[in-house]
Amino acid sequence: MLAGWISRHQQAVIAYQKEEIRVLREMLGGKRPRFTDQQRRRLALRARALSRFTLKDLGPLVTPDTLCRWFRKYAGSKYDSSEQRRPGRPPKPQHIRDLVVRLAKENTGWGYTKLRDVMFTLGHKIGRTTVRRILAEDGIEPAPERRKHMPWATFLKAHWGAIAAMDFFKVEVMTLIGPVRYSVLVVMDLKTRHVEVAGIVREEGRIQA
Predict the structure, then answer these.
(1) What is the pLDDT of residues 3-15, one digit of tens each?
(2) All structural domains of the chain with their residue ranges
(3) What angle, rounded to 10 degrees, do the helices at 152-159 and 2-28 form?
(4) What is the DSSP string of 154-184?
(5) Each residue's pLDDT tens digit, 19-47
(6) 53 and 60 Cβ atoms separated by less than 8 Å
(7) H or E element in which residue 104 lies
(8) Which of 45, 64, 101, 124 has the CB geometry, 3.0–4.6 Å to 55, for a possible disulfide?
């Protein structure tokens, strides 16, 4: 029941986004949109997880070939040591960057300051500006925007331990006065798959044999 609702919800979201892209194309009137490097990186990272068929079906503002080229340029070479090192502090180790990105994705309401404080608690001293730069390089939006665009699957993963599925069924029991029908409500903890009977209610009236 829950899986079917999620699937219908995702289909509705995709249908809306496709229509929104069509409207944006009409507003552009054939003009090519201009993207910043950060926007190209963000689109390339998102597109990386999709097939060419899926991208074509979505009707993106740029072609799948362009998205692949952007990924090679902006994401694939992001940590390429062949690039000339800029003056200033050296970049943070990869495991630090990965941890910041993971925390941001799993906790969409955490801003730069919160992420910095959590990293300090975990034994990694980094600045707020460093956190912002790491997230920007990975195409991750600031906290308010991340909350707006949280995928449904991410929301479920973050709250899986606090979500329950409910359903009810009817059962007929033979008694001294004849068959009696009961409605049974069951609840399942999605994380543990543990099922509990939440209530049993006898329906009024006798069942006609």
Answers:
(1) 555 567 677 777 7
(2) 91-154, 163-202
(3) 140
(4) HHHHHHGGG-EEEEEEEEEEEETTEEEEEEE
(5) 777 788 788 887 878 888 878 887 887 77
(6) no
(7) helix 94-106
(8) 64
